[in-house]
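User: Design a sequence. Structure:
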């Protein structure tokens, strides 16, 4: 019986197609990524979502992110439907050991975490960025506390090094056990905050690169260094030729260039593309994808053209690794075509790209439809937004844009007038695609309340909030905002709710400040001392229940016990201030008590 190949997927955060030397970047030095460019299959028209959590959902599920219910990085809309079978489930069912190390960003609590979704081992941080509201208090990329299968664990070293070192140990354990492994390595770098040692970024400042971009480049250099160490380790263990390595970035560059409001590059490098992370043009969603082909399992290393996407990787790996058959996948397997040595795939395929950073989805917002070399681009503007026009029946009609990428990569020359039939065809494709997935997308992904499963809920998941409170910096600033959380009571009964302004590990009073954290040569910005709120009372509203309490001087929390019936409910909390105003409890801890 032929030995199953090991698989490693390395996914970087906010590194775009142009953020490596092999793709023409005039500053960066990335020898190991350059080696992959020359010695792996390179998918030359590979596309992702324009934002990080949706891209991860599409990879992990093999489905469009919109259909997996992940279309934003905020408002709890990054929690992926717990009923979806994940890439780790497929590998585990196929006899593999499974692990991930780094950025999950698909849910912070049971049953959304990776250890609940098929990963035997998972080391992650909370939220989508180290230092966000669900993360361990005061994590800053260096010597942080991460969750290992849900347990807070202190680590030494820089985050990127921690992920790769942990992965290497997992790999060694599986090699010793002669068990095939699937290792998912999603780094949080080079996403900001741009905390990195000067030994990585000073050389770029000396070249004249702006400081923030210099640190962004330094973080990429650190990733590249770790990729080289990992490949050398596999070679030393005689495992390199038994391991498929896949590398890609989750969206267009965030910091490798600056653009104006129309997506035109003002400075930096974007490999000749218009737009960057979070927009609709090519630079927002076209990215690198390298796939090694050990023992020519997928034919010779080469450039491969034709539309592909991150949700194609799961069905491709199912075929290569002999995993159980995929269930309701949107992706298309590349396995047979690659094994046959093909260099052009998926003629006339249509792919949708949707930028939907909202609590509730909005049709026609910031989308792109791809077919062969043509792009229908519909950026939402004041003219095209029916919400801003005030009337969905308005006669004002704004045409989308059409570009031929083969002739016009920078998308300067709109050829809509010559391609109106194509515009109608691709618009209809988008409309059907959106309508087919809207019901799944709009489903709330609740916090499940049940016995023996204490849970932490944060302001990061607020719906209908007036101001976002997704980072610990905003907790420190004391954002004057509130929203509601969606809970689903699985086991009816009495639940204890503990309301806090700061997380438990901070061990701070509701009315306290928190210490200032100064900037250093490694820590880019530092943090100001926390705003002091004079909190005098609190209340909780959930289902038909409302309870109130005064706040004792020096209290760190306010505790309520509420009897809840089975089913889905909205939960809203308030801290009342001395001046009569109120804010939401940024942290809520809940557990069943009877």
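Assistant: Done.
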């Amino acid at each position: 019986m032929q030995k199953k190949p090991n698989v490693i997927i390395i996914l970087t955060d906010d590194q775009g197609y142009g953020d490596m030397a092999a793709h023409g970047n005039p500053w960066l030095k990335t020898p190991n990524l350059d080696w992959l460019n020359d010695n792996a299959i390179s998918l030359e028209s590979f596309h992702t979502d324009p934002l990080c959590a949706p891209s991860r959902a599409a990879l992990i599920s093999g489905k469009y992110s919109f259909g997996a219910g992940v279309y934003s990085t905020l408002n709890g809309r990054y929690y992926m439907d717990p009923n979806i079978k994940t890439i780790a489930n497929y590998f585990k069912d196929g006899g593999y050991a499974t692990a991930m190390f780094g950025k999950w960003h698909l849910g912070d609590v049971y049953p959304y975490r990776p250890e609940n979704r098929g990963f035997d081992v998972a080391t992650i941080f909370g939220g989508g960025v180290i230092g966000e509201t669900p993360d361990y208090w005061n994590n800053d990329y260096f010597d942080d506390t991460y969750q290992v299968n849900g347990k807070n664990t202190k680590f030494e070293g820089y985050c990127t090094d921690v992920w790769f070192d942990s992965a290497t140990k997992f790999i060694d354990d599986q090699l010793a056990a002669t068990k095939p492994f699937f290792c998912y390595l999603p780094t949080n770098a080079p996403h900001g905050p741009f905390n990195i040692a000067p030994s990585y970024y000073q050389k770029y400042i000396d070249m004249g690169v702006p400081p923030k971009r210099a640190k962004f480049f330094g973080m990429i250099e650190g990733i590249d260094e770790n990729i080289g160490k990992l490949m050398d380790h596999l070679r030393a263990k005689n495992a390199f030729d038994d391991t498929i390595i896949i590398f890609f970035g989750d969206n267009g560059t965030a910091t490798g260039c600056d653009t104006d409001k129309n997506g035109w590059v003002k400075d930096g490098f974007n490999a000749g593309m218009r737009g960057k992370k979070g927009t609709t043009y090519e630079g927002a969603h076209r990215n690198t994808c390298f796939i090694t082909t050990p023992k020519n399992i997928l034919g010779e290393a080469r450039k491969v053209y034709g539309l592909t996407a991150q949700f194609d990787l799961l069905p491709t790996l199912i075929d290569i690794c002999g995993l159980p058959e995929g269930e309701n996948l949107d992706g298309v397997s590349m396995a047979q075509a690659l094994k046959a040595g093909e260099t052009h795939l998926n003629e006339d395929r249509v792919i949708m790209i949707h930028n939907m950073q909202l609590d509730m989805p909005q049709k026609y917002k910031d989308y792109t439809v791809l077919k062969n070399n043509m792009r229908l681009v519909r950026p939402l503007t004041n003219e095209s937004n029916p919400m801003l026009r005030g009337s969905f029946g308005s006669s004002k009609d704004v045409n989308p844009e059409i570009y031929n990428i083969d002739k016009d990569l920078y998308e300067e020359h709109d050829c809509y007038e010559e391609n109106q039939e194509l515009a109608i065809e691709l618009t209809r494709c988008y409309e059907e695609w959106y309508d087919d997935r809207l019901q799944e997308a709009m489903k709330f992904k609740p916090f499940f309340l049940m016995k023996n499963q204490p849970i932490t809920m944060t302001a990061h998941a607020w719906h209908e909030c007036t101001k976002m409170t997704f980072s610990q910096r905003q907790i420190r600033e004391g954002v004057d905002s509130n929203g509601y959380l969606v809970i689903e009571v699985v086991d009816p009964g009495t639940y204890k709710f503990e309301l806090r302004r700061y997380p438990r590990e901070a061990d701070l009073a509701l009315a306290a400040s928190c210490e200032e954290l100064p900037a250093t040569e490694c820590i880019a910005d530092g943090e100001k001392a926390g705003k002091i709120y004079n909190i005098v009372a609190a209340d909780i509203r959930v289902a038909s229940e409302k309870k109130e309490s005064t706040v004792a001087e020096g209290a760190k929390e306010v505790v309520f016990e509420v009897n809840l019936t089975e089913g889905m409910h909205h939960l809203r909390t308030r801290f009342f201030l001395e001046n009569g105003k109120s804010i939401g409890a940024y942290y809520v801890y809940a557990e069943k008590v009877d």
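The longest helix spans residues 211-236. The radius of gyration is 24 Å.
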